[in-house]
Design brief:
Layout lengths: L1 H12 L10 H29 L25 H15 L5 H26 L8 H21 L11 H10 L17 E3 L7 E3 L2 H4 L9 H23 L5 H20 L2 H7 L10 H19 L8 H18 L6 H4 L1 H24 L11 H7 L4 H21 L5
Antiparallel strand pairs: 1-2
Protein backbone atom coordinates (compact mmCIF):
# COMPACT_ATOMS: atom_id res chain seq x y z
CA UNK A 1 0.00 0.00 0.00
CA UNK A 2 2.82 2.39 0.84
CA UNK A 3 4.46 1.34 -2.42
CA UNK A 4 1.44 2.55 -4.41
CA UNK A 5 1.08 5.68 -2.29
CA UNK A 6 4.64 6.83 -2.87
CA UNK A 7 4.46 5.81 -6.52
CA UNK A 8 1.47 8.14 -6.87
CA UNK A 9 3.24 10.92 -4.94
CA UNK A 10 6.24 10.62 -7.23
CA UNK A 11 4.21 10.74 -10.43
CA UNK A 12 1.90 13.55 -9.38
CA UNK A 13 4.00 15.75 -7.11
CA UNK A 14 7.63 14.57 -7.46
CA UNK A 15 7.60 14.09 -3.68
CA UNK A 16 11.17 14.08 -2.27
CA UNK A 17 12.36 10.57 -1.42
CA UNK A 18 9.35 8.85 -3.00
CA UNK A 19 11.54 7.19 -5.64
CA UNK A 20 13.20 5.13 -2.90
CA UNK A 21 10.11 2.92 -2.80
CA UNK A 22 10.79 1.94 -6.38
CA UNK A 23 14.00 0.20 -5.32
CA UNK A 24 13.63 -3.45 -4.35
CA UNK A 25 16.54 -3.39 -1.89
CA UNK A 26 15.12 -0.39 -0.02
CA UNK A 27 11.69 -1.95 0.33
CA UNK A 28 13.24 -5.28 1.41
CA UNK A 29 15.33 -3.62 4.10
CA UNK A 30 12.33 -1.64 5.31
CA UNK A 31 10.20 -4.81 5.35
CA UNK A 32 12.74 -6.62 7.51
CA UNK A 33 13.06 -3.73 9.97
CA UNK A 34 9.28 -3.35 10.22
CA UNK A 35 8.70 -7.09 10.75
CA UNK A 36 11.41 -7.16 13.45
CA UNK A 37 9.75 -4.28 15.26
CA UNK A 38 6.29 -5.84 15.03
CA UNK A 39 7.44 -9.28 16.21
CA UNK A 40 9.52 -7.97 19.12
CA UNK A 41 7.34 -5.07 20.32
CA UNK A 42 3.88 -6.49 19.69
CA UNK A 43 5.02 -10.07 20.17
CA UNK A 44 5.09 -9.53 23.92
CA UNK A 45 1.50 -8.27 23.87
CA UNK A 46 0.39 -11.30 21.88
CA UNK A 47 2.11 -13.59 24.39
CA UNK A 48 0.26 -11.88 27.25
CA UNK A 49 -3.00 -12.28 25.34
CA UNK A 50 -2.34 -16.00 24.84
CA UNK A 51 -1.57 -16.36 28.54
CA UNK A 52 -4.87 -14.70 29.47
CA UNK A 53 -6.71 -17.05 27.14
CA UNK A 54 -4.99 -19.97 28.89
CA UNK A 55 -3.22 -21.08 25.73
CA UNK A 56 -0.50 -22.82 27.77
CA UNK A 57 1.06 -25.92 26.24
CA UNK A 58 0.18 -29.29 27.77
CA UNK A 59 3.41 -31.26 28.03
CA UNK A 60 3.53 -35.04 27.85
CA UNK A 61 6.12 -36.60 30.15
CA UNK A 62 8.70 -38.16 27.82
CA UNK A 63 11.42 -38.27 30.42
CA UNK A 64 13.41 -35.42 28.88
CA UNK A 65 15.42 -32.98 30.97
CA UNK A 66 13.68 -29.65 31.52
CA UNK A 67 10.49 -30.86 29.88
CA UNK A 68 8.15 -30.45 32.84
CA UNK A 69 9.23 -26.82 33.30
CA UNK A 70 7.79 -26.02 29.86
CA UNK A 71 4.23 -26.81 30.96
CA UNK A 72 2.00 -23.76 30.71
CA UNK A 73 4.18 -21.93 28.18
CA UNK A 74 1.83 -20.21 25.68
CA UNK A 75 1.49 -21.86 22.29
CA UNK A 76 0.04 -20.56 18.99
CA UNK A 77 2.97 -18.14 18.82
CA UNK A 78 2.95 -18.67 15.07
CA UNK A 79 0.42 -15.84 15.03
CA UNK A 80 3.33 -13.48 15.78
CA UNK A 81 5.23 -14.75 12.73
CA UNK A 82 2.18 -14.52 10.46
CA UNK A 83 1.24 -10.97 11.46
CA UNK A 84 4.83 -9.70 11.44
CA UNK A 85 5.21 -11.08 7.91
CA UNK A 86 1.93 -10.06 6.31
CA UNK A 87 1.74 -6.46 7.58
CA UNK A 88 5.06 -5.32 5.97
CA UNK A 89 4.22 -7.27 2.80
CA UNK A 90 0.83 -5.59 2.47
CA UNK A 91 2.47 -2.21 3.00
CA UNK A 92 5.57 -2.55 0.82
CA UNK A 93 5.10 -5.22 -1.86
CA UNK A 94 3.50 -5.03 -5.28
CA UNK A 95 0.25 -6.74 -4.40
CA UNK A 96 -0.67 -7.52 -8.02
CA UNK A 97 2.44 -9.70 -8.34
CA UNK A 98 1.29 -13.31 -8.69
CA UNK A 99 4.14 -14.65 -6.54
CA UNK A 100 3.23 -12.31 -3.68
CA UNK A 101 -0.44 -13.32 -3.98
CA UNK A 102 0.50 -17.00 -3.84
CA UNK A 103 2.62 -16.51 -0.73
CA UNK A 104 -0.12 -14.56 1.05
CA UNK A 105 -2.60 -17.35 0.22
CA UNK A 106 -0.09 -19.95 1.44
CA UNK A 107 0.45 -18.10 4.72
CA UNK A 108 -3.26 -17.80 5.46
CA UNK A 109 -4.08 -21.32 4.22
CA UNK A 110 -1.44 -23.12 6.28
CA UNK A 111 -1.95 -20.74 9.20
CA UNK A 112 -5.63 -21.69 9.41
CA UNK A 113 -4.83 -25.42 9.29
CA UNK A 114 -2.25 -25.02 12.07
CA UNK A 115 -4.58 -22.81 14.11
CA UNK A 116 -7.38 -25.40 13.96
CA UNK A 117 -4.93 -28.08 15.08
CA UNK A 118 -3.73 -25.99 18.05
CA UNK A 119 -7.29 -24.97 18.93
CA UNK A 120 -8.52 -28.56 19.05
CA UNK A 121 -5.60 -29.60 21.24
CA UNK A 122 -6.17 -26.83 23.76
CA UNK A 123 -9.89 -26.14 23.90
CA UNK A 124 -11.36 -29.47 22.83
CA UNK A 125 -8.94 -31.56 24.92
CA UNK A 126 -8.03 -33.54 21.82
CA UNK A 127 -4.40 -34.59 22.25
CA UNK A 128 -4.10 -35.52 18.59
CA UNK A 129 -5.51 -32.19 17.37
CA UNK A 130 -6.55 -32.08 13.74
CA UNK A 131 -6.53 -35.57 12.26
CA UNK A 132 -3.55 -36.33 10.07
CA UNK A 133 -5.71 -37.01 7.03
CA UNK A 134 -7.21 -33.53 7.23
CA UNK A 135 -3.76 -31.94 7.47
CA UNK A 136 -2.68 -33.90 4.40
CA UNK A 137 -5.88 -32.89 2.62
CA UNK A 138 -5.12 -29.24 3.35
CA UNK A 139 -1.54 -29.60 2.11
CA UNK A 140 -2.71 -31.36 -1.04
CA UNK A 141 -5.26 -28.60 -1.65
CA UNK A 142 -2.57 -25.95 -1.36
CA UNK A 143 -0.30 -27.97 -3.66
CA UNK A 144 -3.02 -28.05 -6.32
CA UNK A 145 -3.57 -24.28 -6.04
CA UNK A 146 0.15 -23.48 -6.17
CA UNK A 147 0.99 -25.95 -8.94
CA UNK A 148 -1.95 -24.93 -11.13
CA UNK A 149 -1.28 -21.21 -10.66
CA UNK A 150 2.43 -21.47 -11.43
CA UNK A 151 1.69 -23.55 -14.52
CA UNK A 152 -1.27 -21.70 -16.01
CA UNK A 153 -0.92 -18.07 -14.90
CA UNK A 154 0.21 -15.77 -17.71
CA UNK A 155 2.68 -13.86 -15.51
CA UNK A 156 4.63 -16.98 -14.56
CA UNK A 157 7.23 -17.25 -17.30
CA UNK A 158 10.94 -17.64 -17.77
CA UNK A 159 13.58 -16.55 -20.25
CA UNK A 160 16.21 -18.88 -21.64
CA UNK A 161 19.56 -17.71 -22.94
CA UNK A 162 20.19 -17.65 -26.66
CA UNK A 163 22.25 -20.51 -28.13
CA UNK A 164 25.97 -20.06 -27.44
CA UNK A 165 26.80 -19.38 -31.09
CA UNK A 166 24.25 -16.56 -31.27
CA UNK A 167 25.60 -15.11 -28.01
CA UNK A 168 29.14 -15.12 -29.43
CA UNK A 169 28.04 -13.34 -32.59
CA UNK A 170 26.22 -10.66 -30.60
CA UNK A 171 29.15 -10.21 -28.19
CA UNK A 172 31.59 -10.01 -31.11
CA UNK A 173 29.52 -7.21 -32.62
CA UNK A 174 29.05 -5.40 -29.33
CA UNK A 175 31.11 -6.49 -26.26
CA UNK A 176 29.09 -4.09 -24.09
CA UNK A 177 25.73 -5.46 -25.15
CA UNK A 178 22.96 -5.43 -22.54
CA UNK A 179 22.47 -8.71 -20.69
CA UNK A 180 18.78 -8.73 -21.66
CA UNK A 181 19.74 -9.03 -25.35
CA UNK A 182 21.35 -12.43 -24.65
CA UNK A 183 18.01 -13.94 -23.61
CA UNK A 184 15.10 -15.20 -25.70
CA UNK A 185 11.52 -13.98 -25.29
CA UNK A 186 9.44 -14.94 -22.24
CA UNK A 187 7.91 -18.41 -22.44
CA UNK A 188 5.83 -20.75 -20.31
CA UNK A 189 8.02 -23.57 -19.08
CA UNK A 190 8.04 -26.57 -16.76
CA UNK A 191 11.81 -26.49 -16.40
CA UNK A 192 13.47 -26.60 -13.01
CA UNK A 193 16.97 -26.76 -11.56
CA UNK A 194 18.81 -29.96 -10.67
CA UNK A 195 21.85 -29.16 -8.46
CA UNK A 196 25.39 -30.48 -9.02
CA UNK A 197 24.63 -31.49 -12.63
CA UNK A 198 26.17 -29.94 -15.73
CA UNK A 199 23.44 -28.27 -17.77
CA UNK A 200 21.41 -28.40 -14.60
CA UNK A 201 17.98 -27.67 -16.05
CA UNK A 202 15.37 -30.40 -16.21
CA UNK A 203 11.96 -30.24 -17.88
CA UNK A 204 9.16 -32.05 -16.06
CA UNK A 205 7.50 -32.61 -19.44
CA UNK A 206 10.23 -35.15 -20.25
CA UNK A 207 8.75 -37.48 -17.63
CA UNK A 208 5.85 -38.19 -19.99
CA UNK A 209 6.96 -37.05 -23.46
CA UNK A 210 9.27 -40.05 -23.75
CA UNK A 211 6.09 -42.10 -24.10
CA UNK A 212 4.69 -39.77 -26.78
CA UNK A 213 5.49 -36.15 -27.73
CA UNK A 214 1.75 -35.50 -27.81
CA UNK A 215 1.63 -35.87 -24.03
CA UNK A 216 3.48 -32.59 -23.48
CA UNK A 217 0.16 -30.77 -23.00
CA UNK A 218 -0.41 -32.88 -19.88
CA UNK A 219 2.86 -31.80 -18.21
CA UNK A 220 0.75 -29.70 -15.83
CA UNK A 221 -0.29 -32.90 -14.06
CA UNK A 222 3.34 -33.75 -13.27
CA UNK A 223 4.05 -30.20 -12.14
CA UNK A 224 1.07 -30.17 -9.76
CA UNK A 225 1.98 -33.59 -8.33
CA UNK A 226 5.53 -32.36 -7.66
CA UNK A 227 4.14 -29.24 -5.98
CA UNK A 228 1.91 -31.36 -3.74
CA UNK A 229 4.82 -33.60 -2.77
CA UNK A 230 7.19 -30.72 -1.99
CA UNK A 231 4.65 -28.75 0.06
CA UNK A 232 3.54 -31.79 2.05
CA UNK A 233 7.08 -32.97 2.75
CA UNK A 234 8.53 -29.60 3.77
CA UNK A 235 5.58 -28.48 5.91
CA UNK A 236 5.63 -31.79 7.79
CA UNK A 237 9.42 -31.55 8.13
CA UNK A 238 9.15 -28.10 9.69
CA UNK A 239 6.40 -29.39 11.98
CA UNK A 240 8.60 -32.25 13.24
CA UNK A 241 11.58 -29.91 13.71
CA UNK A 242 9.55 -27.72 16.07
CA UNK A 243 10.33 -29.71 19.19
CA UNK A 244 12.81 -27.70 21.26
CA UNK A 245 13.26 -23.98 21.91
CA UNK A 246 14.46 -22.00 18.89
CA UNK A 247 15.20 -24.94 16.62
CA UNK A 248 12.50 -24.55 13.95
CA UNK A 249 12.54 -20.72 13.88
CA UNK A 250 16.34 -20.42 13.68
CA UNK A 251 16.78 -23.16 11.09
CA UNK A 252 13.96 -21.74 8.98
CA UNK A 253 15.45 -18.23 9.05
CA UNK A 254 18.68 -19.62 7.58
CA UNK A 255 16.79 -21.52 4.87
CA UNK A 256 14.55 -18.60 3.92
CA UNK A 257 17.45 -16.13 3.77
CA UNK A 258 19.21 -18.47 1.33
CA UNK A 259 16.07 -18.73 -0.80
CA UNK A 260 15.99 -14.93 -0.77
CA UNK A 261 19.39 -14.90 -2.48
CA UNK A 262 18.13 -17.32 -5.12
CA UNK A 263 14.97 -15.25 -5.67
CA UNK A 264 16.97 -12.04 -6.07
CA UNK A 265 19.50 -13.39 -8.58
CA UNK A 266 16.86 -15.37 -10.50
CA UNK A 267 14.77 -12.23 -10.93
CA UNK A 268 17.72 -10.04 -11.93
CA UNK A 269 18.64 -10.43 -15.59
CA UNK A 270 22.23 -9.24 -15.07
CA UNK A 271 23.01 -11.79 -12.34
CA UNK A 272 21.07 -14.49 -14.20
CA UNK A 273 23.28 -13.92 -17.24
CA UNK A 274 26.48 -13.83 -15.17
CA UNK A 275 25.64 -16.98 -13.19
CA UNK A 276 24.17 -18.71 -16.24
CA UNK A 277 20.92 -19.56 -14.47
CA UNK A 278 17.33 -19.31 -15.66
CA UNK A 279 15.88 -15.82 -15.55
CA UNK A 280 12.38 -15.66 -14.03
CA UNK A 281 10.74 -12.28 -14.66
CA UNK A 282 8.86 -10.71 -11.72
CA UNK A 283 10.04 -13.33 -9.21
CA UNK A 284 12.38 -10.78 -7.59
CA UNK A 285 9.37 -9.29 -5.79
CA UNK A 286 9.43 -12.35 -3.53
CA UNK A 287 12.49 -10.73 -1.93
CA UNK A 288 10.14 -8.32 -0.12
CA UNK A 289 8.15 -11.21 1.33
CA UNK A 290 11.29 -13.11 2.28
CA UNK A 291 12.81 -10.08 4.03
CA UNK A 292 9.64 -9.64 6.09
CA UNK A 293 9.52 -13.36 6.84
CA UNK A 294 13.14 -13.50 7.99
CA UNK A 295 12.56 -10.47 10.22
CA UNK A 296 9.48 -12.12 11.71
CA UNK A 297 11.36 -15.36 12.42
CA UNK A 298 14.28 -13.54 14.06
CA UNK A 299 11.90 -11.39 16.09
CA UNK A 300 10.03 -14.50 17.18
CA UNK A 301 13.34 -16.02 18.31
CA UNK A 302 13.60 -13.15 20.81
CA UNK A 303 10.90 -14.93 22.80
CA UNK A 304 11.41 -18.50 21.59
CA UNK A 305 15.07 -19.07 22.47
CA UNK A 306 15.80 -21.14 25.57
CA UNK A 307 13.99 -20.89 27.90
CA UNK A 308 11.07 -20.18 25.56
CA UNK A 309 8.40 -17.68 26.57
CA UNK A 310 6.18 -18.87 23.72
CA UNK A 311 5.92 -21.84 21.34
CA UNK A 312 4.97 -21.40 17.70
CA UNK A 313 2.67 -24.44 17.68
CA UNK A 314 1.37 -25.92 14.43
CA UNK A 315 0.07 -22.45 13.60
CA UNK A 316 3.69 -21.47 13.01
CA UNK A 317 5.47 -24.66 11.98
CA UNK A 318 3.04 -25.77 9.26
CA UNK A 319 2.95 -22.22 7.90
CA UNK A 320 6.74 -21.94 7.85
CA UNK A 321 7.11 -25.23 5.96
CA UNK A 322 4.45 -24.29 3.43
CA UNK A 323 6.05 -20.90 2.74
CA UNK A 324 9.52 -22.39 2.28
CA UNK A 325 8.14 -24.99 -0.15
CA UNK A 326 6.24 -22.45 -2.25
CA UNK A 327 9.23 -20.09 -2.48
CA UNK A 328 11.48 -22.98 -3.57
CA UNK A 329 9.01 -24.04 -6.26
CA UNK A 330 8.54 -20.46 -7.48
CA UNK A 331 12.28 -19.89 -7.97
CA UNK A 332 12.64 -23.39 -9.47
CA UNK A 333 14.99 -24.61 -6.77
CA UNK A 334 12.70 -27.27 -5.26
CA UNK A 335 15.17 -30.11 -5.87
CA UNK A 336 17.74 -28.26 -3.82
CA UNK A 337 15.51 -28.74 -0.77
CA UNK A 338 17.15 -32.04 0.36
CA UNK A 339 20.38 -30.06 0.75
CA UNK A 340 19.09 -26.68 1.89
CA UNK A 341 16.46 -28.18 4.22
CA UNK A 342 18.77 -30.98 5.33
CA UNK A 343 17.81 -30.48 9.00
CA UNK A 344 14.12 -30.93 8.13
CA UNK A 345 15.01 -33.98 6.05
CA UNK A 346 17.00 -35.56 8.89
CA UNK A 347 14.12 -34.98 11.32
CA UNK A 348 11.66 -36.52 8.85
CA UNK A 349 13.85 -39.52 8.09
CA UNK A 350 14.53 -40.21 11.76
CA UNK A 351 10.79 -40.59 12.40
CA UNK A 352 10.23 -42.73 9.29
CA UNK A 353 13.19 -44.97 10.13
CA UNK A 354 12.22 -45.27 13.79
CA UNK A 355 8.59 -46.19 13.09
CA UNK A 356 9.45 -48.47 10.18
CA UNK A 357 12.14 -50.39 12.08
CA UNK A 358 9.97 -50.69 15.19
CA UNK A 359 7.09 -52.20 13.22
CA UNK A 360 9.39 -54.52 11.26
CA UNK A 361 11.21 -55.87 14.33
CA UNK A 362 7.96 -56.25 16.28
CA UNK A 363 6.52 -58.37 13.48
CA UNK A 364 9.69 -60.41 13.07
CA UNK A 365 10.87 -60.79 16.67
CA UNK A 366 7.68 -60.13 18.62
CA UNK A 367 9.30 -57.09 20.21
CA UNK A 368 9.78 -53.66 18.70
CA UNK A 369 13.32 -52.29 18.54
CA UNK A 370 14.52 -48.74 18.00
CA UNK A 371 17.29 -47.16 15.96
CA UNK A 372 17.29 -43.93 17.96
CA UNK A 373 16.72 -43.42 21.65
CA UNK A 374 13.79 -41.24 20.63
CA UNK A 375 12.57 -39.53 17.48
CA UNK A 376 12.55 -36.93 15.95
CA UNK A 377 16.32 -36.67 15.90
CA UNK A 378 16.66 -33.73 18.31
CA UNK A 379 15.01 -35.81 21.05
CA UNK A 380 17.59 -38.55 20.47
CA UNK A 381 20.33 -36.09 21.42
CA UNK A 382 18.33 -34.90 24.40
CA UNK A 383 18.09 -38.49 25.59
CA UNK A 384 21.84 -38.79 25.06
CA UNK A 385 22.41 -36.06 27.65
CA UNK A 386 22.96 -32.97 25.50
CA UNK A 387 21.35 -29.74 26.69
CA UNK A 388 18.75 -28.47 24.23
CA UNK A 389 20.46 -25.11 23.74
CA UNK A 390 23.60 -26.94 22.58
CA UNK A 391 21.55 -29.15 20.25
CA UNK A 392 19.84 -26.11 18.74
CA UNK A 393 23.10 -24.21 18.22
CA UNK A 394 24.74 -27.19 16.53
CA UNK A 395 21.70 -27.74 14.29
CA UNK A 396 21.91 -24.05 13.33
CA UNK A 397 25.58 -24.51 12.43
CA UNK A 398 24.69 -27.50 10.25
CA UNK A 399 21.94 -25.40 8.66
CA UNK A 400 24.43 -22.61 7.87
CA UNK A 401 26.85 -25.09 6.27
CA UNK A 402 24.03 -26.55 4.15
CA UNK A 403 22.96 -23.04 3.15
CA UNK A 404 26.50 -22.20 2.01
CA UNK A 405 26.65 -25.46 0.05
CA UNK A 406 23.31 -24.61 -1.56
CA UNK A 407 24.55 -21.18 -2.64
CA UNK A 408 27.73 -22.71 -4.04
CA UNK A 409 25.57 -24.89 -6.35
CA UNK A 410 25.08 -21.74 -8.43
CA UNK A 411 28.59 -22.39 -9.75
CA UNK A 412 29.18 -26.12 -9.04
CA UNK A 413 27.70 -28.14 -11.91
Amino acid sequence: MLYYLFEHLEKQFQFPGATLFGFLTFRAALAMILSLLISTIYGKRIIRFLQKKQMGETIRDLGLEGQKEKAGTPTMGGIIIILATLIPVLLLAKLENIYIILLIVTTLWMGVIGFIDDYLKKFKNDKEGLKGRFKILGQVGLGIIVGATLFFHQDVTMKEKLPIEEQRILLAKNPNIEASKLFQDEIKSTKTTIPFVKGNEFDYAKLITWISPNLEEYAWIIFILVSIFIITAVSNGANLTDGIDGLAAGTSAIIVLTLGIFAWVSGNIIFSEYLNIMYIPRVEEITIYIAAFVGALIGFLWYNTYPAQVFMGDTGSLTIGGIIAVIAIAVRKEWLIPVLCGVFLAENLSVVMQVGWFKYTKKKYGEGRRIFKMSPLHHHYQKSGYHESKIVTRFWIVGILLAILSIVTLKIR
